[in-house]
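Structure tokens please, single chain.
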Amino acid sequence: GTSPSTPWLTFDYALSSGRAWCGNTLVLLDGTYGDGTSTGKISVQGANCTSGSVLTIMAQNSRQALIRDDGTGRAVDIQNSAYVIVDGLYARSVDRVGVVANGGPFRIKLSNHVTIRNSIGVNPNRYANVMIFSALNSQDLLFEGNEGYFFHRHCITGWESERIVVRRQYCNPRNGGKIPGGFSAGGASLGTGDAVFSMYPCRDCILENSIGEGAMFLNEMNATYHEQLIMSAKILGSICIGCSAGNGIYLNSRRQPDLNHTPQNILIENTAIVDFRSRSSGIRASDAVNLVVQNVTIAGADGQTGISLDDTAYGATGAQQSATVRDSVVMGMNGTGLNQEAGSYNTLVTSNLYSYNNRPASSGSWGSVSTNNPGMGSCKVFIPENSPLKRAGTNGGDIGANVLCRYENGVLTQTQLWNWQTGQFPCGAIVAGVNDVAGSSCSDVHRRLNVNTNGCNLPATPSCRQPAPPNFPSIPPSGGFVPPILRGPDGEVCPSGF
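Here you go.
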């Protein structure tokens, strides 16, 4: 266990107090581990480490250590632990008929300060309600620089959790998605996946500089109020390309009529939903208080609505709902570019909006909206210099999304996001046959986004301006504590103690 020539054989032996534990790094040599081998899978239980004594599990060569699950468990499972880092692993499961709750690549449960980075997950069991990366009842987690493929549910989920950051994640269900007889929440279409990051609910959580591509959506905010958690989040510098499985971003109250079951203090900024192909909305907010949508680009190939504000019989009332929408552009929708349902969002503040080539005209109290051509040319995720949107927004900023610089924990930096020579997104190491598939991989997504290619050249320097800060006024009281009704992923009432 102390040199490559004398490695330990099993994870059960290696991952224990006195061997690889807090303060140590367990290095995995290239090869296949897990079900079907003699090594067992990675299970970290009760590693209560500290910031000065972290347990790290890493591949000697990034993504060349495969942890395999046979559809009955988890390839990498971390429970009741703190300060654990998983770095550069490749984990995958398989479809297993008759198994309805297991078969996933990565799971974190009842833990805090856990990081999964530079890793790749493939094929959670599509007969079960499992994700590629699951975070359950946990706090202070970071998912960074990962990729996920061939999935039917969410790429990442934050269930009853707090302060999760998902950063530079790429997810594509590819030719996987929902299958006949498999798990399908709400009867969703076969062949589709769900969100890059589903918040269920997630308090003070961030999705930044992440990409969802294909038959999926970018984000879902489910304000279930489980564990008395108010849904609050930021979606920053992220992209959905060719999304075709529902709303690109969806805020909802999950069937409960009070403020506690309402997304609150939500910021969607510098986010691009492009080549949108869903008969739904790019951004749909069914109940929100203090929602700020700014510097957003939504462009349809066969999309229905750009931004939709509506009211359900649940969550906040129309009088309680509030939103600010500014410095954004919607174009090419088959339906309404900007939609506000009658009686919803009594407080709606708007400015510097473009609604171009959408049918029919925008509906609701959007104020003055330009219908002029935004002049984006072939550019999709940043505003070119010759566009009339350039420097035409709040405080001399641009109108529309500029996904050019990296966000770090919700703060826009001046660090370049893309490779300024090739245009490539910062993807991880190649796994042959998995993330080198042309046309549906992280490694070439920049070509489909026209980043430094197809006539849309990156600017000489990123020069990313911080958008105007959101104004989150105090939220009116909800009339006292409302006991939560615990519900499962499909809205079913769960037994006490679930």
